[in-house]
């Protein structure tokens, strides 16, 4: 069986690759189990050095990887270059963590207790199509740094960069079996990884629906799970904000990666007295958000990932939708959709409540600070968000009250290699990146040493 990989900007096939099967999962788990016995005992300084070599090797192939990701995932080439740079930075950051993965010594009666952070063994990593290689690296780098062996199952629509990564890792000296990639369907290959008794943990990024199924299936073998799921983040704009700056940043906050971003601020909550002025400023910023060929110069947004996904996104903009204004998108082949601003949106409507995962944003007015917090929190999700105001105290008060894992004040920034990332509520369980990420790939062991009285 083979898997046909499609280029979303043209709608045409760009590669045909072998499709993995559940039996391949069984073989990969066996291979990873053997590799683990040696990998766990590699001296920390050597393991760190190998991860640094992998980071260098990724950087050496940055341009080719960026073009591959731009073609397969439809990302503008400048964004794809930044993403591959982040992948290298992620391996470098966690290489630095290998020798700082410390335990404690705890004085106790009659001796001393010490703690060790032991690797879990074989971990299964399941990733989505929207940021294929960065999301894989957020899992792989801490997993390998902590001494685990990993089996990565990329999304069916975007497996190509992960397959390249496996080759690059081998060439950089990562031992065989430590990092394996299996490209295949979620319900068969992914499911087998989740149920396999030889897999100690699943780290998953994807939809809340599939994440819930993974949590249920993982219960059978008491697997550890980290879940990075959906979002419906709020961009809260107070009337006392720098409205020019907020409006200039708003298109990037939601239309980046064509809105196929779990951190997309797909609800803009604007204080009622500022709505008209904000929309006046937002319209030219949206018109200037150029949509086109991901490999073209000065393109801010590419196509959606597939025709089926474009149809789903379009269903949130029926004929009677309150479209305030739209940008433009190319005609013809490729899965194009224009940036679309809806206003005013009923907070109870699907456009205000569901994760659209496309370039459609709902503008919802609010009255005061309490109303802003209530509306921001009126969601099953809690992943990201922004707060725009010139009042520092208010910014922090609101940030403390919004139920969300990552917030930025007067900015859209969501993800940094050195800070924790993850969600509240149905946006997930656990955190990736930052100083604590390796803990999620290790078990804490306590050893008591009786010294005698
Ligand atoms: P998806 O849930 O459809 O698929 C994600 C992965 O799970 C794919 O590799 C898929 O093959 C696999 N899968 C599907 N069924 C499975 C099963 N039964 N068992 C095991 N694996 C299975 O998600 P998607 O459409 O690829 O990605 C979009 C979603 O990902 C959005 O909801 C988005 O918010 C979310 N996302 C979250 C984050 C985050 O960090 N919180 C980041 C990016 C994307």
TrEMBL record:
Stretches assigned to the Aldehyde dehydrogenase domain: 3-447
PROSITE patterns: ALDEHYDE_DEHYDR_CYS, ALDEHYDE_DEHYDR_GLU
Record keywords: Oxidoreductase
InterPro entries: Ald_DH/histidinol_DH, Ald_DH_C, Ald_DH_CS_CYS, Ald_DH_CS_GLU, Ald_DH_N, Aldehyde_DH_dom
GO function terms (MF aspect): oxidoreductase activity, acting on the aldehyde or oxo group of donors, NAD or NADP as acceptor
Gene3D superfamilies: Aldehyde Dehydrogenase, Chain A, domain 1, Aldehyde Dehydrogenase, Chain A, domain 2
Sequence similarity: Belongs to the aldehyde dehydrogenase family.
PANTHER family according to UniProt: ALDEHYDE DEHYDROGENASE-RELATED
The name this protein goes by in its record: Unannotated protein
């Amino acid at each position: 069986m083979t898997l046909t990989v499609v280029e979303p900007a043209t709608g045409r096939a760009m590669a045909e690759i072998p499709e993995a099967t559940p039996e391949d999962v069984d073989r990969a788990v066996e291979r990873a189990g053997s590799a683990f016995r040696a990998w766990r005992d590699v001296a920390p300084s050597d393991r760190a050095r190998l991860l640094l070599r992998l980071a260098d090797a990724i950087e050496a192939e940055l341009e080719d990887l960026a073009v591959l990701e731009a073609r397969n995932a439809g990302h503008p080439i400048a964004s794809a270059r930044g993403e591959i740079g982040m992948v290298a930075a992620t391996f470098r950051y966690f290489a630095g963590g290998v020798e700082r993965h410390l335990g404690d010594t705890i004085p106790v009666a009659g001796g001393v207790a010490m703690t060790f952070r032991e690797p879990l063994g074989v971990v299964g990593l399941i990733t989505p199509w929207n940021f294929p290689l960065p999301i894989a690296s957020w899992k792989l780098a801490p997993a390998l740094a902590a001494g685990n062996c990993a089996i990565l199952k990329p999304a069916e629509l975007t497996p190509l960069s992960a397959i390249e990564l496996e080759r690059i890792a081998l060439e950089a000296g990562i031992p065989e079996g430590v990092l394996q990639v299996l490209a295949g369907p979620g319900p068969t290959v992914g499911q087998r990884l989740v149920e396999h008794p030889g897999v100690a943990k699943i780290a998953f990024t994807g939809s809340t629906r599939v994440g819930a199924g993974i949590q249920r299936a993982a219960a059978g073998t008491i697997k550890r799970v980290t879940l990075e799921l959906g979002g419906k983040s709020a961009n809260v704009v107070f009337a006392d904000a720098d409205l020019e700056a907020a409006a200039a940043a708003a298109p990037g906050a939601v239309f980046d990666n064509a809105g196929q971003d779990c951190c997309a601020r797909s609800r803009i909550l604007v204080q009622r007295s500022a709505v008209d002025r904000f929309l006046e400023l937002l319209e030219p910023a949206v018109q200037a958000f150029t949509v086109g060929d991901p490999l073209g110069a000065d393109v801010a947004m590419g196509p959606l990932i597939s025709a089926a996904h474009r149809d789903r996104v379009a269903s949130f903009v029926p004929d009677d939708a309150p479209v305030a204004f739209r940008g433009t998108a190319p005609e013809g082949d490729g899965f194009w959709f224009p940036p679309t601003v809806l206003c005013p949106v009923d907070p109870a409507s699907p456009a205000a409540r569901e994760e659209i995962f496309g370039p459609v944003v709902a503008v919802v007015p609010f009255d005061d600070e309490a109303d802003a917090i209530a509306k921001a929190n009126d969601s099953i999700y809690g992943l990201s968000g922004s707060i725009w105001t010139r009042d520092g105290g208010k910014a922090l008060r609101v940030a403390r009250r919004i139920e969300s894992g990552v917030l930025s004040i007067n900015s859209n920034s969501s993800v940094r290699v050195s800070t924790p990332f993850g969600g509240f509520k149905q946006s997930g369980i656990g955190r990736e990146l930052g100083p604590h990420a390796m803990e999620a790939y290790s078990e804490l062991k306590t050893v008591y040493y009786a010294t005698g009285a």
